[in-house]
């Protein structure tokens, strides 16, 4: 047997020989269809797509692309490590762009150190720093700073609450910041970041800081901003806080003497925030409108309806029973029928029939005189509510306009 045949037949020698041949490495081969199918080799952040120095990536699909790349690449990286990545880049050199963005996103400093040249201009934007700062990887941020990569806005880590990265970027001379940093930190509940920016930065914030913190229920941040900042807030803030149901924040704003409108109680009632409705009734003069009971009934908040009936004079409209019936809130319908005089319209049974609320339709047919229209019959038939059709047929005397159409409930 010739020497050549022995080499080819050798399980030890042949793999060593083929390592020096052109082509695709064996371990890389299963990865290639996924790479080309997802266009990972055409990842948009090459030097050919230079953007401005900023915090917002030029491609809105960045998160989707990097998540998809992670699904494909991470199992490969776990199995083959940096040696496998070396071979992958030999086969697909243009993959370096998405690889570095992914490494920054996951804080893979070893990958950055191996494949990101010192003071490189490969990325003309702050993409790598944005990814590392957004996901809180201080070690990756330190590496990128040391190797001359563009900085992202301080807004980026501030919005995510990464105080250590905010502090690190703050101590570089080139970092930029806007009022949005404190606005977003306040909105997302990052008190330590808000405090740091207030003490160490001069950009300040806008009314959005207090507005968004209050609407999100961050009472400690609301207290801090009221005590230390003078940007103020929007005129309808208490209305918005009442709508969201943040009672602690509402009391803070109330204690400052801030004004509100009747919309505060209306919306709080509509969202079922009984504690806030009680507070506004006891401590404010703005009152409410009929929309308060209407919306509370529509959304099934019986206790709120009962409180408004007992404690307020605004009352409601036929909207209350109509919408309560539509949404199947039988107890609310019963309470309104028994205790209120506004009544309902034919919409009550029509809508309840469409939504197959048999118990509500039976109650209304037995206790109300408004009846229903041909629409109830047609909708029940169209939606194949057979039982509902039988109920309506039983109470045909409540039909406002006689039907000439014969309907078969099959």
Automatic annotation (TrEMBL):
What InterPro entries is this protein classified in?
Ankyrin_rpt, Ankyrin_rpt-contain_sf, SecEffector_AnkRepeat
Where does the source fall among the domains of life? Eukaryota
Which Pfam family, giving just one, matches this sequence? Answer: Ank_4
- This chain belongs to which protein, by name? Uncharacterized protein
Q: Which organism is it from?
A: Aphanomyces astaci
